[in-house]
Structure to design on (342 residues):
């Protein structure tokens, strides 16, 4: 994930879906359900019918709550740590990046990742690393750093952190197919989880993710708890591990912007999120980045968050990878396997 680009991308995503619906009648809407959705420009919502609004909303929506009665080992809450290893790809995806911005991003590969992995080792914690495959090809040594403990998961985060909402179905599908192949080759394991770059779904993303055999998705924000995704109103069998900007390091750790917040304040936000999750026997999913949280003053936020949890009696909190959590809630909810789309 990356916040700065995410806002624009989200606006585009909305525009794409809305235009599709507003530009067609019910017969053509039905026909479009089986077809890739074209990327085009927007019409304002006040020109739609209610049916159009409902069709837009139902493209991908939250379905069944998949909260388990208890988390593994009888734990009262789950904490899932994820690290989006974007590094230079956030700059590269726009083309013609500056040397300065590339160097700022390389910090993640060169310094930040190791600092984060060392902290996870100190606490013996698992995490999921969502990696654009170009990022790993640029610094292939990262694979060994992440693999060393045997606790962590690799998952897909696009090919070059592409903006899905600007892409036709065929290109989005090709890049994601390529990303899976490259990540499998570079890590030795076929990934089962997907996180859209910038958490940015196109109208085609869920279809592609289902077709390519992913077992869970982690880009959407309809709940704090795990849930099943509905696609056009129908259960998909796809587990959503939801994310949130509140629990992402990128928006508030902008060192040049007026939005910069102290890492200690941010740690308190995450701690408050965790304390409520514990009351509700729910889940916290952190989304951090080696090129952002890997800095010396910022890793303090994650240290404070983990130290807060560590003070609780042993077994109160379960830490797992996203894949472990998705498989667990799938089994507990008797969800069955992901539904083949067609
Ligand atoms: Zn990202």
């Amino acid at each position: 994930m990356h916040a700065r680009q995410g806002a624009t991308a989200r606006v585009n995503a909305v525009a794409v879906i809305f235009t599709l619906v507003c530009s067609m009648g019910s017969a053509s809407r039905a026909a479009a359900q089986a077809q890739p959705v074209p990327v085009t420009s927007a019409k304002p919502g006040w020109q739609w019918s209610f049916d159009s609004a409902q069709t837009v909303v139902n493209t991908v929506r939250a379905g069944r709550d998949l909260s388990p009665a208890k988390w593994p080992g009888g734990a009262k809450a789950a904490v899932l740590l994820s690290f989006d290893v974007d590094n230079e790809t956030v700059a590269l995806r726009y083309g013609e990046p500056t040397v300065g911005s590339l160097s700022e991003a390389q910090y993640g590969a060169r310094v930040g990742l190791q600092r984060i992995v060392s902290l996870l080792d100190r606490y013996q914690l698992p995490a999921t690393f969502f990696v654009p495959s170009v990022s790993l090809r640029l610094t292939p040594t990262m694979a060994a750093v992440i693999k060393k403990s045997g606790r962590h998961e690799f998952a897909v985060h696009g090919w070059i952190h592409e903006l899905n909402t600007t892409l036709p179905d065929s290109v989005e599908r090709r890049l994601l197919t390529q990303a899976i192949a490259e990540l499998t080759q570079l890590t030795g394991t076929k990934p089962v989880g997907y996180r859209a770059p910038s958490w940015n779904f196109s109208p085609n993303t869920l279809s592609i993710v289902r077709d390519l055999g992913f077992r869970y998705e982690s880009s959407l924000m309809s709940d704090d708890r795990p849930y099943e995704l509905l696609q056009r109103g129908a259960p998909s069998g796809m587990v959503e591990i939801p994310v949130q900007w509140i629990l992402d390091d990128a928006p508030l750790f902008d060192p040049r912007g007026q939005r910069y917040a102290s890492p200690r304040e941010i740690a308190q936000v995450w701690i408050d999120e965790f304390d409520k999750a514990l009351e509700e026997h729910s889940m916290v999913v952190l989304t951090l980045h080696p090129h952002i949280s890997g800095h010396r003053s910022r890793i303090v936020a994650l240290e404070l968050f983990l130290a807060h949890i560590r003070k609780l009696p042993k077994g109160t909190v379960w830490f797992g990878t996203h894949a472990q959590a998705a498989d667990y809630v799938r089994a507990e909810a008797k969800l069955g396997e992901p539904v083949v789309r067609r």
Confidence is low (pLDDT under 50) at residues 3-34.
